[in-house]
Amino acid sequence: MGDETCAGPGRDAAAPAAREVIELLEVLWNTGRELTSPAPVSSSQLRVLYVLDRDRPVNLRALGEELGSAPSSASRMCDRLDALGYIERSAGTAGRRERELRLSARGREHLEDLRARREAALLDVIDAMPPAQRAALAAGLGGFRRAVEASGAAEECLRWRGRRSSHRSAGGSPGLPGARPAGTRERS
Fold first, then answer.
1. For the chain, how big is the Rg over CA atoms in Å?
2. Helix, strand or coil for residue 3?
3. How far apart are alpha carbons 111 and 122 in whole angstroms?
4. Strand ranges (DSSP E) for 92-188?
5. Distance CA 31, CA 48 (A)
């Protein structure tokens, strides 16, 4: 049994092909996001919604840490999402001054609609593929996911793994939102 994880045939072609697919997915994702709401949210704000979609309250400090954003940036994103009715703020359990953030029913509906539109866009494309290519795509993506999980350098992606399986059962698309290199900060 040979080790196929080292450089070899197909390796150098796989990275540009994956990059091109990612760019196409970004176009599909943005199209889906624009169609879901008269007030679409930015990519940064969407990441906030993903974090809050974990069915547990989060305080602003923890949210900022999770996003890699300064507390002031996270606060501004939450102000906008609160104005849209996508999040709820309540008194925290740790102290009077702490506020807990939760996804509102409207925010959950926005994410469900977004995920459904994204999956529909993907299915439109996948339906155009011959069955053998669909099977190869599924096998290739499964292998890619396993490699990401085994790499040890993908801690943020692994945090999203639990959300992926629950979204799949709810009819949404499995995604690894907002992954970025460690040590970088997101701009709001």
1. 18
2. coil
3. 16
4. 99-103
5. 19
Report residue 36 as tokens.
Answer: 């879901």
| Structure token digits, residue 118 | 């994204």
* Centroid of chain to Cα 128: 25
Model pTM score: 0.65
3-state secondary structure of 55: coil
**Are 174 and 168 a contacting pair, CB within 8 Å?**
yes
Mapped onto helix, strand or coil, the DSSP state of residue 108 is helix
pLDDT tens digits, one per residue of 60-89? 888 998 888 888 899 999 999 999 999 999
52 and 92 in contact (C-beta within 8 Å)? no
Chain position carrying tokens 């990441």: 47
Compute the distance between CA of residue 52 and CA of residue 74 in angstroms, rounded to an integer: 13
Instruction: Give tens-digit pLDDT for 118-177.
Output: 888 888 889 999 999 999 999 998 888 888 888 765 555 545 444 444 444 343 333 333
